[in-house]
Design brief:
Distance between the termini: 11 Å
Shape: globular
Largest sheet: 4 strands, antiparallel
Low-confidence stretches: none
Number of helices: 17
Mean pLDDT: 97
Strand order of the largest sheet: 4-5-6-9
Strand content: 5-15%
Bound molecules: (2R)-2,3-dihydroxypropanoic acid
Helix content: 40-55%
Number of strands: 11
Order of helices and strands: HEHHEHEHHEEHHHHHEHHEEEHHHEEH
Radius of gyration: 20 Å
Length: 418
C-alpha cells in the first residue's frame, strides 16, 4: 500500500515530465511554472538526481537579463492556456510571463546538492550566479524597507488569497475587454478564482505589458503593490540556503548576509497585532489586509521564532480536520474549496512542516505531515484539498503533490519499507 503510493507519485512525475521540465498538470497548466518546477526537482531528487538538476537548470534558462526568473516559461506552443505569450508581451526567448514567483529554487538546490555534494558541485557552480542574480533582482526591485512586495497576486503563488482583497478593489478593469478563460473548462469554477478576480488579474497583466514590464514604472505607478509575508519569508529562507551554497563554493558572502539582516528586520513590520499574525500590507494605502493565511506560518521556515504565531497555529490546527487551511477557518472569508481562500495545499504544509521541525516544534511538524499523508492517501495527488472533509480539489495528478509526497510526506521515508 505505502509502496504503491510512492510508485504512483513517481509515475505522475514521469507522466508530467516533458524531458527537461515538468508541467504541473496536463490541460490546466501545460508549461513550466517556476515554483512548481523547484518542487518537482525536490521530488525527482528522491529517485533520479540527474533529472532533478535538469529541472532547475531548465528553469533558469528563462531568466531575464535583469535577473528576474519568470513565473511561466512557455517552452513550446500549447493550446488551451490563458493568458499566453501574446497577452504577456514579454519579448523574451524562450517566451515567458512578466512576473516572478516565490523563490524556493535556492532552498531545493541546496537540498539536492546535499544528497550528493560530489555529483552536485558542477551543477551548483553553474546555478549559483543565476540564483544570486535572481535574489538580487528581488532586493533591487521588490524590496520596500525589507518587506518583499508582489506586483501581481499571481506572483505570490497564492492567486486569490484574501490577502489581496483590499488592494484588488482599487484595480481598474476598464482596459480589459473580452477574453476567454480556460481554467474553468478544466476545473470546477467553484474551486477557482471568481470572474472579478480574473478581470483584475488581466488588468494588472495589461498594465505591465503597457509599460514594457519596466520595474521602476511599476514600482511607482503599477496598479498593485503589496508586501507579502509569504514572499518575504521564502526569500529570507532562500537567502540562508544561498549563503550555505556560497560558503561551499568559496564565493563572497557579505552581500547575501546583508540581505538576510534586511529581511529579518523588515518582516517584523508585517506583524499585525490586531489579528496576531504576519499579514499582507498594501504599499499604496498603508493598510493591512487583516488576513490570517497559511503564509503567516512560514515564519519558522524563515528561521524566525514566534510564540504568538504558534498559539494561532495550534488554534487553527485544532479546529481543522485536515491541516493546514490556506485561510483562517474561523474567518468569514474562509471558503474550503476556493483555491487560496481555504483549501489545504501539500506544498505549503511541506514548507511550514520543515520550518516547524527545524525550530524544534516536532509535535506540530509531525501532525502536519500525518494530515498531509492522510489527504493524499484518501484523495490522491490533487492540486489542493478541502480541509473540512479532505476531498480533492483543483487539477488531478499534480506534480508538486507527488513531489512533496516523495520528498516529505510519504510514511515510507520514516520506515524501513521504502
Ligand atoms: C493560473 O493560471 O491560475 C496561474 O495560477 C497563474 O500562474
Amino acid at each position: 500500500m505505502l509502496k504503491s503510493l510512492d510508485e504512483q507519485a513517481r509515475a505522475i512525475m514521469r507522466g508530467n515530465d516533458q524531458g527537461t521540465y515538468t508541467m504541473p498538470t496536463e490541460g490546466l497548466y501545460p508549461y513550466q511554472w517556476n515554483w512548481d518546477s523547484a518542487f518537482a526537482a525536490f521530488g525527482f531528487a528522491t529517485f533520479d538526481l540527474a533529472r532533478a538538476w535538469v529541472e532547475i537548470e531548465t528553469l533558469l534558462t528563462g531568466q531575464w537579463e535583469n535577473g528576474m526568473v519568470p513565473h511561466i516559461i512557455f517552452h513550446e506552443a500549447s493550446d488551451g492556456y490563458f493568458p499566453g505569450p501574446s497577452e504577456w508581451g514579454a519579448n523574451q526567448t524562450p517566451q515567458t510571463s512578466g512576473i516572478s514567483q516565490p523563490p524556493v529554487a535556492a532552498t531545493f538546490t541546496r537540498a539536492i546538492f546535499e544528497k550528493n555534494p560530489e555529483a552536485g558541485r558542477s551543477h551548483v557552480e553553474g546555478l549559483f550566479p543565476k540564483l544570486l542574480a535572481w535574489h538580487r533582482w528581488f532586493i533591487d526591485n521588490r524590496n520596500e524597507n525589507g518587506m518583499i512586495v508582489v506586483n501581481h497576486p499571481w506572483e505570490s503563488g497564492r492567486d486569490n488569497a484574501p490577502d489581496w482583497d483590499e488592494a484588488m478593489e482599487n484595480v481598474d478593469t476598464s482596459n480589459v475587454g473580452e477574453y476567454i478563460r480556460n481554467d474553468t473548462s478544466h476545473v470546477d469554477p467553484h474551486m477557482r478564482p471568481n470572474q472579478l478576480d480574473y478581470d483584475r488579474f488581466m488588468a494588472i497583466v495589461y498594465a505591465g505589458r503597457g509599460c514594457g514590464w519596466d520595474e521602476a514604472e511599476m514600482a511607482k505607478n503599477g496598479p498593485f503593490r503589496v508586501a507579502d509575508p509569504g514572499m518575504t519569508f521564502i526569500l529570507l529562507r532562500a537567502n540562508r540556503d544561498l549563503l550555505a551554497l556560497a560558503e561551499q563554493l568559496g564565493e563572497p558572502t557579505d552581500e547575501i548576509k546583508g540581505w538576510i539582516s534586511l529581511l529579518e528586520s523588515g518582516v517584523q513590520q508585517l506583524w499585525n497585532p490586531a489579528i496576531r499574525a504576519y499579514d499582507a500590507l498594501n504599499i499604496r494605502t498603508g493598510n493591512f489586509a487583516g488576513s490570517m493565511s497559511s503564509s503567516s506560518f512560514l515564519c519558522w521556515f524563515a528561521g524566525i521564532e514566534d510564540s504568538s504565531a504558534l498559539t494561532e497555529f495550534d488554534r487553527i490546527a485544532a479546529v481543522s480536520k485536515y491541516s493546514f487551511p490556506s485561510h483562517d477557518p474561523e474567518s468569514d472569508r474562509f471558503e474550503p474549496l476556493r483555491y487560496w481562500r481555504g483549501p489545504a495545499w501539500g506544498i505549503i504544509n511541506t514548507l511550514i512542516g520543515i520550518g516547524l521541525a527545524e525550530m524544534g516544534h516536532h509535535k506540530q511538524a509531525e501532525a502536519l505531515r500525518d494530515d498531509t499523508a492522510s489527504l493524499i492517501t484518501q484523495s490522491g495527488f490533487a492540486e489542493y484539498f478541502n480541509p473540512v472533509d479532505g476531498s480533492p480539489a483543483g487539477g488531478k495528478d499534480f506534480t508538486w503533490t507527488a513531489a512533496i509526497w516523495l520528498a516529505w510526506a510519504s510514511p515510507s521515508l520514516h520506515t524501513k519499507e521504502n
